[in-house]
Amino acid sequence: MSKKYAYELKIKVVEEYIEGKLGYKALTKKYGISSPSLVKNWVYNYKRYCTNGLKAIQGKADYSLDFKLNVLHFKQRIGASYKETAIAFNLTNPSMIANWKRIYLEGGSEALNRPIGRPPKVVKKLNKKELRQKNKVTDDSELERVRQQVTYLEIENAYLKKLKEWGLNDHRDPNKPNSL
Q1: 98: pLDDT strictly greater than 70
Q2: 74 touches 88 (CB < 8 A)
Q3: Which has the minimum average pLDDT: 95-99, 104-108, 110-114, 125-129?
Q4: Mean pLDDT of the chain
């Protein structure tokens, strides 16, 4: 699981690197950052996108299939690296292009167009009042159904008792001879 770092820390680390005080490894040790390559990426993003390159991305960017295919075709046609391709298309994460390429090679454009991750829940959240009302309607209809069933069974039971009282058999029972 990747660790998240505060925006202020990123700025501080990048500024120290640019001033030439410390290198990637020294800054990694000084601030307890998990990897020198992370500091290197921060510096790169800062140089390319200024402070916006260090801000955490809010939500997931949704790129169209055409955009993804254009990026992959550009990389293949030009022979650019992932980093160069990311710069050309203003993408802050070059590894995303590598993921697109892998998905495309494994499953074609259909796989590339598929959303990644769990689909969102579409269930409508009901407030307490609506939920009580819905349960009441369901309970009322269920209660009415049960009452009707009980009434039917009571009538059937009375019918069968009368048949037995008169010494007759139930004509619905195929195993017993019908005396009606």
Answers
A1: yes
A2: yes
A3: 125-129
A4: 78
pTM (2 d.p.): 0.46
Q: Is the CB of residue 27 less than 8 Å from the CB of residue 13? A: yes
CA angle 59, 72, 93 (to 5 degrees): 35
180 pLDDT band, cuts 50/70/90, is very low
Whose tokens are 């955490």? That residue is 56
For position 102, what pLDDT does the model report?
A: 92
Amino acid at 93: N
Q: In the chain, what are the helix, strand and coil shares in percent, each to the nearest 5?
A: 65, 0, 35
Quick one: pLDDT at residue 33?
86
| DSSP label at residue 123 | P
CA angle (49, 54, 58) in 5-degree steps: 105
Query: By C-alpha distance, which of 38, 37, 49 is closest to 9?
Result: 38
User: Domain limits of the chain?
Assistant: 1-56, 62-115, 127-180
CB 68 within 8 Å of CB 100: yes
pLDDT surpassing 50 at residue 158: yes
Nearest CA-CA partner of 41 in 97, 89, 96, 83? 83
- Residue 91 amino acid letter: L
Alpha-carbon distance of 180 to 163, in angstroms, equals 10
Residue burial 133-163, b: 16+ Cβ < 10 Å; e: rest: eeeeeeeeeeeeeeeeeeeeeeeeeeeeeee
